[in-house]
Amino acid sequence: MTRTRLTTVDDVPENGSYLFTVRERDGTEEEVVLVRCRDGESEITAWRNFCQHEIDQRLDRGFGAAVREGEIVCPKHGSMFDTCTGYCDNGKAAESYLSGVDVAVDGDVIYLTDSAVEFAHEGGIDDDDDGGPSSTSHLTF
Ligand code: FES
């Protein structure tokens, strides 16, 4: 089994998330958030970064998902998803599960172990600009 090093447990905030991007089998990119599962000492779970009520609603909009007492709070209508199971029993997204991605913690390091996806890059999809200056003549530094 191949595994890809993602980051360390310390990089996953208690009340937030760590955002990265994977490539799905069909080549599309998908954002994933790492969060702390409350039931585990350093247990980490990973969920595709969209709400089950409206799939175009990101949970982490680029500055960390809102995590409160072991639940990820959707920023739009406030449904809360268990960080360990991905399950939601409340609000507009009630009776749904977030879409999970397999990760493993080995020591202090978090690895992507899901054979259905491959690591693309840290951060969100929009953070993957080709990095060069814009095509206009405006100076940048
Ligand atoms: S979009 Fe998340 S609860 Fe409505």
Protein described:
With 141 residues, the chain is an all-beta fold. Helices cover 0% and strands 38% of the residues. The chain contains no helices and 13 strands. The chain has a 5-stranded antiparallel β-sheet with strand order 10-4-3-2-13, with no helix packed on it. A 3-stranded antiparallel β-sheet has the order 1-12-11, with no helix packed on it. It is globular. Bound molecules: FE2/S2 (inorganic) cluster.
Provide key terms for this protein.
single chain, 141 residues, mainly beta, Rieske Iron-sulfur Protein, five-stranded antiparallel beta sheet, three-stranded antiparallel beta sheet, 13 strands, globular, disordered C terminus, binds FE2/S2 (inorganic) cluster
Strand content: 35-45%
The helix fraction, in percent, is under 10%
Cα-to-Cα separation, first versus last residue? 43 Å
Reported by name, the CATH topology is Rieske Iron-sulfur Protein
So, CATH architecture? 3-layer Sandwich
Return the domain count. 1
**Judging from the principal axes of the Cα atoms, what is the shape?**
globular
What is the N-to-C succession of helices and strands? Answer: EEEEEEEEEEEEE
Bound molecules: FE2/S2 (inorganic) cluster
For the biggest sheet, the summary is: 5 strands, antiparallel
**By helix and strand content, what is the structural category?**
mainly beta
The strand count comes to 13
Count every helix, treating DSSP H or I runs of 4 or more residues as helices: 0
CATH superfamily: Rieske [2Fe-2S] iron-sulphur domain
Mean pLDDT: 89
Rg of Cα set: 16 Å
The oligomeric state of the chains shown is single chain
What are the segments in which pLDDT stays under 50 over at least 5 consecutive residues? 131-141
Enumerate the strands of the largest sheet in spatial order, edge to edge or round the barrel.
10-4-3-2-13
